[in-house]
Amino acid sequence: MKLQLRHLSALFLSVLLTVAAYACSASATTTETNSAETSPELAKAAQDFNTYCSVCHGRDAKGNGPVASELKTPPADLTRISARSDGLFPADAVFKTIEGLDMPLAHGTSEMPIWGALFVRQAVGEGVLIEDAKTAARVATDRIKRLVRYLETIQEK
Ligand code: HEC
Question: Is residue 31 part of a domain?
Fold first, then answer.
């Protein structure tokens, strides 16, 4: 368990470095993933997606991000979640996948990072009070919910 978490952190670091480089380049590229401009919440989610997810899943969410070929498991095509689920968008399952707490860590096979943990850590910042932690958990949850709604908007039939 410890070992796997360490592996995950190393992956996180390398991914975040790649993300930083990738996010700086061609940030003006417009794809259908940016069709969310009408809603500020969805626009924020699209921004999170470009920053944290596109490095593996690709800017168009189809699974061809710049580090995709380095992963053992190919990143899922996130525009076809509904198609894989009998046409219904499984929002709760998608939430849990992104949050990461349902991840089969014990099997050590998942290369999908645990975003719940990262977003909480970012929200907590220096805070160590229980209230800060609760607020952080809420902020992280809202952020994931926003990503879930965003993914729902990019589903292909
Ligand atoms: C380090 C690469 C990587 C990053 C970054 C990443 N993912 Fe993934 N993701 C994967 C891989 C690999 C899978 C395939 C599932 C697995 O772990 O077996 C996956 C699967 C998923 C799935 C499940 C799709 C399905 O239908 O089964 C969702 C939803 C998802 N990712 C959303 C996201 C979101 C949202 C972000 C950004 C907050 C993100 N991912 C960032 C690698 C990544």
Answer: no
